[in-house]
Amino acid sequence: RMQKRFPQQQDNYYKAGNLLYNYCQDVYMLDTLIVKPDEPEPDFKFDEPESSMFAMAFDENSLPDITDGIYSAQISSTPRQDGVKMFKEFVKLSKDSSLNSEALNKSGDLYYWAGSKSRALECYAESSSFLPNDAVVRNKLVDFCNDLYQFEQGLYSLNYLSKEKQLDYEHLLLLIKYKIHSGETKDLESLLKQAISAQPFPGDKIKELKGKSLMLSSKFKVALPVYLELLKTSPNDKNIEYTISRIYAQQNKEKEARFWLKKAIQHGFNYSFVLKYDEAWASIRKRRE
Q1: Distance of CA 184 to CAs 15, 97, 105, 150, 178, Å?
Q2: pTM for the full model?
Q3: pLDDT band at 77 (very low <50, low <70, confident <90, very high)
Q4: pLDDT in tens, 180-213
Q5: 3-state SS string over the chain?
Q6: Which residues are within 8 A (CB) of 74 and not within 5 positions of it... i.e. 6 or more apart?
Q7: What is the structure's pLDDT at 274?
Q8: N or C, fewer C-beta in 10 Å, the chain?
Q9: 10 Å Cβ neighbour count for 191?
């Protein structure tokens, strides 16, 4: 009712958005986003209106001795969708960066609860633009970028978190992984030291990242014992065995390279296209056995 009377009063949209948001946190079966084959964008579709109706209606249309009418609020059968609408209207009117960031962050949550990670990601990205130092939102942004293969955007946010010293342990490992896969060696060693110092007893995940970073720097002799150590906790791991064979191949130790390659194949390594194009085998590939 207040929105209809005062359409330019931003607080009414903010309060309505928060009301719907708080309700949606506690109820699972609500409106969801359904993607149809012929539609590029998903539409909201309500699951079970009878069991998850969120009433916002008022019976009274007038009050005694008051001639001014009272506008009745409509029933919201799609609280997630309506919550997003309320927050979007608020952002249009508001000039408060902090509240805009909060509204867009909550819109992202509503989209995620409704089943759309891509729309949630858009909201988190916009939220982060209003308040770049909000580590909670930026961590969500990183996670959704990772899930949706938006690696460049994810790497940018990970670097930002690292610069601001806001990286938690899991995202630190993710940053190291991204840098290795993108071929970035800058700060890689210091990030690995930071990760190792955070864990008195480094697990296989850190050891694997350390091995990959050494491979990236062509430090094959140093990388070999790392992968041999990994093999102790994951015996017969075809990927580790293949990596060991690559290390030997890059050192021109053909006998050892073939030995470990055969072990990898015996344990399920059958990526013929990798063997065909992997530069580590360039010199050995020319020979036949």
Answers
A1: 46, 34, 31, 17, 8
A2: 0.78
A3: confident
A4: 999 888 889 899 999 988 887 778 899 999 999 9
A5: CHHHHCCCCHHHHHHHHHHHHHHHHHCCCCCEEECCCCCCCCEEECCCCCCCCECCCCCCCCECCECCCCCCCCCECCHHHHHHHHHHHHHHHCCCHHHHHHHHHHHHHHHHHHCCHHHHHHHHHHHHHHCCCCHHHHHHHHHHHHHCCCHHHHHHHHHHHHHCCCCCHHHHHHHHHHHHHHCCCCCHHHHHHHHHHHCCCCCHHHHHHHHHHHHHCCCHHHHHHHHHHHHHHCCCCHHHHHHHHHHHHHCCCHHHHHHHHHHHHHCCCCCHHHHHHCHHHHHHHCCCC
A6: 56, 57
A7: 84
A8: C
A9: 19
Between residues 267 and 28, the one the model is more confident about: 267
Longest pairwise C-alpha distance within the chain: 101
